[in-house]
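Revision sheet: structure tokens.
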Amino acid sequence: MSSTKYIQGMHEMRKHFGEAADRWIKAINAIYPEFAKVNVEFPFGELYRRDVVNDKTRELCTVAALTVQGFALPELKVHIKGALNTGCSEMEILEIITQMIAYCGFPAATNALLAAQEVFDEVKCN
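Predicted:
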């Protein structure tokens, strides 16, 4: 049985990522269900449900953080889609990635820029 936080977390994930949320968690769950549970309950069942900042701001912050990490390109693509789904424009996302050059350098920011273009192209094709 799913916990209340899990149910709330999946609802929140679907707001950001649509059907991709279910595919993402299903893939993780197939490897290790406990990891999938924590992935839903903590960030989305708790943090994303707070009302101090709006969903658009949360996604832009997440895009910035994942850009700076430089190695989380699959997660970055998911959150770029989330940013678009919560009202961010392509230009806002590109500007955030460009600003991150100062914090992560050109290689990580370039990888993020290329990942963003892949997402933009995918969204336009669907």
